[in-house]
Design goal:
This protein is an alpha+beta fold and 534 residues long. The chain folds into two domains: 1-6 and 35-146, Purple acid phosphatase-like, N-terminal (Immunoglobulin-like), CATH 2.60.40; 154-533, Purple Acid Phosphatase, chain A, domain 2. It is built from eight helices and 24 strands. The strands form five sheets. A seven-stranded mixed β-sheet has the order 11-10-9-21-22-23-24, covered by helices on one side. Helix 2 (171-179) packs parallel to helix 4. The protein starts with 12 loop residues before the first helix and ends with a strand. Residues 48-144 form the Phospholipase D N-terminal domain.
Length: 534
């Protein structure tokens, strides 16, 4: 696993805010090592489960949070630090303990722990559990990455996200847990920041609701409670315990369609950055990520790289924190000239440079851009609530709101002579399979890669109203090879010869326990960009 080089910030309002937050204005003070008192629990402190993440060839991060009463402001914990022990074994019964590590869970981090394990063997399974006082957690499975020069025969992983609690049950996460994968890429929208509601915007009742005392998230306590609710779901806990996650974030971890230092409602930047700082703090406290991903006030280094031996190089990107503000007022728009401006960005200059360098220096068979939002051009005419005025309609919250930035990334792929480029994305609550072309205005131009956009776990989507509208959508988007409005995830099976993407769907999320089925499957042959229907 690799991280981008540090990028010292200019002395601006973000720097000032980081200093204020670091001084303790919202409790983000540096954690001091302190003596942990003996503790006993009257109820299970591991209500939010266990997780592993950000694997390396010699280890991974192990995470848990002590929360015997998870929906309370402090999770039912007092202010005292608590010693937590994690045991690592090479068998699921935990009969052969290989090592034991200790960590201190502090109130300042919501009594979460992030234990970075090193010194293990590459490319193999390990098992772990936590202990705190007289309490013991469930057992989780982690897996190290192959050695950098290894030549793995196969990689199996899932891409998933968009899991609004009210939208329905998390049966897709149970299916992912049963797949026993190498890892999961979570593209974001782990939580939704909206307040309690019984019905959706069309008046239909939600399959399940949050507690009534859950307002829209603005404070650190709001965000912490929201994560606690989501992570209490048994299917999500099972998925986390089944394999490592590569966590990212999109917009709803903070506010809908936020961009850079602003939200689309144009909240003053200083106020929004305070909200962003609290939201990212809660994200860190609940994700199995490394200390390098701990926020500094409103800023976090979330983009980073993972190498799966000689088989795949994965760049996890951040398309929120550094992007230009939303163009033309945000939304689904026709003829937004601002979106075409050459100085607009999705990644920011430092991240673009990091990605270009990584692509030039990479030599893995498959080059993967794991990111949050639709990368390919897309015309939304024909969808409900989208007015057709005779011109293409673009969602400017995607890369269609910064077309020059997309052109620069395609140029990077060209310069690096990347013949096996795969873009992973989500956010749209629909499943799409698309080909990426060198000239985005001419779909018959040579393909430079493909995009697999995963549907939502539970968040509501939408589809063209009828068969004629669906057919028009395909005509308007000739690079589109699959569209589905079902809930689910995408499972990827990668070998040196081919990449297979299976679109997995749940027939109903209004009740728990429904199985996943493959509704579409595509392959890419190594060295031949383009999608082949299976």
């Amino acid at each position: 696993m690799t991280y981008p080089p540090s990028d010292p910030s200019a002395f601006d309002r973000r720097t000032v805010l980081r200093g204020a937050l670091g001084a303790g204005l919202i409790g983000l003070t540096p954690i001091q090592a302190g003596a942990a008192a003996p503790v006993s629990f009257s109820s299970d402190p591991f209500t939010l489960g266990v997780a592993s993440g950000d694997p390396a060839p010699d280890g991974f991060v192990l995470w848990t949070r002590l929360a015997p009463e998870p929906l309370k402001a402090r999770g039912g914990m007092n202010a005292h630090p608590v010693e937590v022990t994690v045991e690592i074994a090479d068998d699921p019964a935990m009969a052969r303990i290989l090592r034991s590590e200790r960590a201190i869970a502090h109130l300042e981090l919501a009594h979460s722990v992030h234990v970075e394990i090193e010194g293990l063997e590459p490319g193999r399974d390990y098992f772990y559990r936590f202990r705190a006082g007289d309490a013991e957690s469930p057992v989780g499975r982690a897996r190290t990455l192959p050695a950098p020069d290894a030549k793995p025969s196969q990689l199996r992983f899932a891409a998933a996200g968009c899991q609004r609690w009210e939208g329905g049950y998390y049966s897709a996460w149970r299916a992912i847990a049963e797949d026993q994968l190498d890892f999961v890429f979570h593209y974001g929208d782990y939580i939704y920041e909206y307040g309690f509601a019984t019905h959706d915007k069309d008046g239909a009742p939600w399959p399940r609701t949050m507690p009534k005392d859950f307002p829209a998230c603005y404070t650190l306590t709001d965000y912490r409670r929201r994560y606690a609710l989501y992570k209490s779901d048994p299917d999500l806990k099972a998925a986390h315990a089944s394999c490592p996650f590569l966590p990212s974030f999109d917009d709803h971890e903070i506010a809908n369609n936020w961009a850079g230092d602003s939200d689309p409602k144009h909240t003053p930047a200083e106020a929004f950055l305070s909200r962003r700082a609290m939201a990212l703090q809660a994200w860190y406290e609940h994700m199995p990520v490394r200390r390098a991903q701990r926020p500094r006030g409103p800023d976090v280094t979330a983009y980073r790289g993972f190498r799966f031996g000689a088989l795949a190089d994965i760049a996890v990107l951040d398309t929120r924190q550094y992007r230009s503000r939303q163009p033309c007022g945000n939304g689904f728009l026709a003829g937004c000239a601002e979106a075409e401006a050459p100085d607009r960005t999705m990644l920011g200059a430092a991240q673009e440079q990091w990605l270009a360098t990584r692509l030039r220096q990479g030599d893995a068979t498959w080059r993967v851009l794991a990111q949050q939002v639709l990368f390919a051009p897309f015309d939304w005419r024909g969808f409900p609530r989208i007015e057709d005025r005779g011109a293409p309609v673009a969602d400017v919250d995607t890369w269609n709101g910064a077309t020059a930035a997309r052109d620069r990334v395609i140029a990077m792929l060209d310069e690096a002579k990347t013949s096996n480029a795969v873009v992973l994305s989500g956010d749209l609550h629909r499943a799409l399979a698309l080909e990426l072309h060198r000239d985005v205005h001419h779909p018959d131009a040579p393909a430079v890669g493909v995009e697999f956009l995963s549907t939502s776990i539970s968040s509501v989507g939408g589809a063209p109203a009828n068969d004629a509208a669906l057919a028009a959508m395909y005509r308007n988007n000739p690079h589109l090879k699959l569209f589905s409005d079902q809930r689910g995830y995408t499972r990827h099976i990668v070998t040196p010869q081919q990449w297979q993407a299976d679109y997995r769907a749940i027939d109903s999320i209004t009740a728990p326990g429904h199985p996943a089925q493959t509704i579409g499957s595509f392959t890419i042959e190594a060295g031949r960009p383009g999608l082949i229907t299976r």
